[in-house]
Amino acid sequence: MARKIIVAAAQVGAINQDTGKAEVIARLINLLNEAAHHKVQLVVFPECTLTTFFPCHLFQTQEELDRYFEHGDITQSPDVAPLFEQAKTSGIDIVVGYAERTLEGNGYNTCIYFSASERKVLQKYRKVHLPGTVEPFEDPEAINQLEKRYFKPGDLGFPAFRAPGLVPDVVKQSTLKAGQSTVGRGDPIFGMMICNDRRWPEAWRMYSLKGVELVMFGFNTGGNMAHLWGSKPMTPEQAKTEALFHSKLVQQANSYMNACFSISSARCGLDDGKYDLIAGSAICDPEGHVVAEAQTEGDELIVANIDLADCRQGKEKTFDFSRHRRVETYGLIDKQTGVVEPELL
Amino acid sequence: MARKIIVAAAQVGAINQDTGKAEVIARLINLLNEAAHHKVQLVVFPECTLTTFFPCHLFQTQEELDRYFEHGDITQSPDVAPLFEQAKTSGIDIVVGYAERTLEGNGYNTCIYFSASERKVLQKYRKVHLPGTVEPFEDPEAINQLEKRYFKPGDLGFPAFRAPGLVPDVVKQSTLKAGQSTVGRGDPIFGMMICNDRRWPEAWRMYSLKGVELVMFGFNTGGNMAHLWGSKPMTPEQAKTEALFHSKLVQQANSYMNACFSISSARCGLDDGKYDLIAGSAICDPEGHVVAEAQTEGDELIVANIDLADCRQGKEKTFDFSRHRRVETYGLIDKQTGVVEPELL
Known about the structure:
Chains A, B: Residues 5-308 form the CN hydrolase domain. By secondary structure, chain A is an alpha/beta fold.
């Protein structure tokens, strides 16, 4: 049984510190309209889609920082609501990333899955693997990465979920005998992660243990940062090539090792003419091949017609977890955070 | 402090069912002599180095099967001992894979690390992730993969170990204060896996949680099997290209995500003129780049001069586990073997 859907990543180019949200939303709606033209059913927007990538700046006041955050229900925010209205009108599900400030005052790097057919948010994800540092670099010329200062680690785990309305003629749970599974036969099972999570195989595995057929993530990845951090001398151009290489490598390999599709969507370009973010938005299949890839460093829609049934080969053969995984040997993975030398174990 | 060593993979081409072990050992010693010429300090030989890849055959008697197995201490086996003698003479550490029959009669797909300076086996590893099936295919023309029939899953876990004598001027534990670690400063920390293990991120992570700087594995990977298993029609040539792509992809990505070097060594070529195994032996650096790669499908030594200190950038920054891992979100990984649909969790 084919499980075909048309999906897209909506890559978003430079956004400056003083770019207004209305202007950004207009660009996102343009991309959504282009998606509708291609009969796309699901569009993934980037991490922190709505503003410049502010964790590269140190802010002196809470007020300066908070203008980059969303407060309350984002679908009801006057600035952002038109995007969700357009999604409903076009009948396109969307994933949108944003900085979330909770009622308790906690900051999270968040994304949501909004279903056009259900007309509501089906799932929220909060970024688990925050990169960077709490304290800014001493060098005033260095480009900071202050996610650990501005956000708490996500507290929702890796919540897989079903997305109804995308694939016709799914097998319903009620039609099955007790114990029979609708994984790969019912409504598709999706998972979201954000940026740096993609480098952590644990995140992918938590999802694939829940039958996920498609992982979606946005990213903001510095193109002119690695040469400052690295122990090897590199030009900014070399550092950018390396960052793109790593981004693609982990998406391809983790899609393969978890027998799932993946969609990545970049916030990219040169924010404020200075802060360079890599592009390279991509859609990968469960065999690890890139099936669509951005060609620019600006606003760009990439589209693929995918068949989720292609996950079956991996999930039923090489990566049939029930036959091949050996959990009795994996004990340290959720018990030991850091490295311990073998003699001390 | 540089931690340079010269390492090699010794790829081994076709071995037929009736090829004698003495003939194989002579070929391995040739490769070892070539390694000595290049001042190599460590050579990795393939999985089941000493015989044809017998799990593609169904044997009718235990006697037929057992001629492919080693019984007792392999370093004392009259057939194989000359290899270890040569390793000692050349001052080269070696990793050798073989089928092991224990005193209790259990079969394991095993490899050992033999230290030339210590003149003994430092560590044994038994393959954890056995691919294939217990029962042969019904189609008599299909090429079997009967590892689950002939071997038990490894019972030694993922045992990281120190290899002395390779890197000069290491920091000794006794010179450090309590709590200070010699990871990355003492004798290098190594880990072994075998073939299919390389596709399982859990195996790599168990090692990197123990500070491993170099993962070594041999493989026997079918080049004319995937087109028989796959759900998509493929020619044998396409299946072989795909198998090579996957092999390289997982080695590169897992080396990067675990900030370690890796050496893979293929048993390859056309056994008995019929059973095709991919080549593609490779040495990867901790940034995921291939630094040396086999060019043939036969006996071939590939050499790289590596600096284990290059692991530091990954281990101290992007993949600084103690700062970035979130074990509270990884709970299913060692508790749930197979896939469970999200609603049932």
